Automatic annotation (TrEMBL):
Keyword Acyltransferase applies: no
Protein name as catalogued: T-complex protein 1 subunit beta
Protein task: Molecular chaperone; assists the folding of proteins upon ATP hydrolysis. Known to play a role, in vitro, in the folding of actin and tubulin.
Family (UniProt): Belongs to the TCP-1 chaperonin family.
GO MF annotations in UniProt: ATP binding; ATP-dependent protein folding chaperone
Amino acid sequence: KAIQFSGCASGEACCIVLRGASQHALDEAERSLHDALAVLYQTISETRVVYGGGCTEMEMGVHVLELASKTEGKEALAIEAFAKALMAMPGILSENGGFDAAELVGNLRAMHQKGHADAGLDLSKGVVASMSDLRICESYRSKLSQLCAATEAAEQVVRVDNIIRNAPRQRNA
């Protein structure tokens, strides 16, 4: 669904009036409108886009997993965990869309491993499809912000885990 604004001359300020059946519904509509306007602002100020439908996360995950297979030691485990976290995003999308995540994500991963870098989830039909053909895109800046925030949060968890870990107990001989 799209909202079309009319009656506002280009470049002029306008008011948006929201109405709802309850205060809760009105608050949710206000949050949704705020989020939509923030994405619109980001898209206007940064015109680059990336493919949506979990395509970007799966493609990054496949490449990060490839890097993990070429890395040795504990770093390989950390890199592999990061790849799996990236690849989990399409599963969350499919579950939120009411579809079988295991089947869709398996198909999506297979498509990316075969070199179909634009493959993503078409949640209107519950299939894997070309995001390029469907013209399903997301804001580059928004995606970058999401990835940076998630990576920073994971890094903080790892740091806390290292701080909490106790030294081994001394054993009496």
